[in-house]
């Protein structure tokens, strides 16, 4: 008869262990004791192992540097055996989790909203290796045990093609992909063509490739520029999308070659482990202009931001549009009365509600040109991405920013400066949804966790109304909608809001429609804090149940508690490892 986990550890260690099975304790005799057998009842699935400890011994969550000690093992254990014991414990926990997961889902049809978790921004180091590999491995195992569908990772242009055009180093990413595959996790890979650093939540700095930065230093107009001449190096200006300004290639060609290189390197994982390609199209990976840069305190919430159309390539396009419109005088510059980054709409002539320039013929001309430039940028890159990944079994997605402040005003100024021509009189998200629908892409939207009353009402913030508008636009365009939380949240209140938003119960036409996926921001030590982890596991299970689930919420939470209990050693190890 195969030895159970306590038998195996007891035999290895010569220590008397107790296995708790459904509340019945069964003593395992130490090696060499007079007892020759133990009476065992049929073990329940919530098997856990504990050790009789004495003195001031404390539980450990990972081996100490010297000598190595297994979790929950006391003194007297041979160092070489402690590692084996820990491996046996983790193998048994993983087996129990996987068995329960399969049994629970074997008779259920596909439903609910799969949850992905964002990896740390610096998951791959500058030397092209996985950062905190032990922590990463433990964390991925814990996420899988919780029922998470997969992970989202940034594949940084500034790391992979850092040193020379066309020279790609996928080291680190290849290892990370294999780790995800080993744990049975799917991957949403973000083609991150932007700089990391300077935006909300950026915990590290990864600039654009060196050779790109060199070209931008030679020709500063390759950078987005505001009316005061301030340059933004987060992302190459879309004004030069089709010009060979990067060592003989256009920016769009560079993005396409990078995606093609990714496809060729990871072709064996596409459609199986790698299930989605999110194509970065601007700062923070979002399809927008860098109108509200936080770096150096330029912009602070809830300022209206500023138009980014003053590099020579954008002005050249504006001039052509103005001449075609029959108003060449409108092509020399953008609005000069749109205020500064931290103004509010009523501080400016352009955005004020009564007689504002945004509502004039000139305003309509300029805002149409500005937003269409952004749409055309998205269209060009999507055409390429679709051709590169066609028939590879992966979804293509695009991330849109959730700009919810001043949403209650007539002009929606912060959305306008970001390139979304959305006002009280005009739906700015339907054209975006229709563009994505033409290419079969997923509309990925942020700020799903926010509630209107949590935000400053003097700034007329309305994230719930904004999410509803986007949901209606994607419903009309028949494009899938996926979501993300804009800021880290670990409380039940935010989780309930995400559950509500992801159900897409917005009108009678919603039917069985739900979000296609939700990506949770972000994997870090806080997520593995015991209270946060318990809430997160329950949240994942509720999302997977879907809006028409037969199970009551209390039952789901009881099941979540069970998962938290049996995965506690993994979670403790992940939390400690991530902090070092």
TrEMBL record:
EC number(s) in its UniProt entry? 3.2.1.2
Gene3D superfamilies under this entry? Glycosidases (3.20.20.80)
Give the residues annotated as active site. 286, 484
Output the GO biological process annotations, alphabetical, semicolon-separated. polysaccharide catabolic process
Q: Which reaction does it catalyse?
A: Hydrolysis of (1->4)-alpha-D-glucosidic linkages in polysaccharides so as to remove successive maltose units from the non-reducing ends of the chains
Record: residues binding substrate: 154, 194, 202, 399, 404, 446, 485-486, 522
UniProt GO MF annotations: beta-amylase activity
Q: Which Pfam families match?
A: Glyco_hydro_14 (PF01373)
Report keywords, A-Z. Answer: Carbohydrate metabolism, Glycosidase, Hydrolase, Polysaccharide degradation
Source domain of life is Eukaryota
Which family is it part of?
Answer: Belongs to the glycosyl hydrolase 14 family.
Protein's recorded name: Beta-amylase
From which organism does this entry originate? Solanum lycopersicum
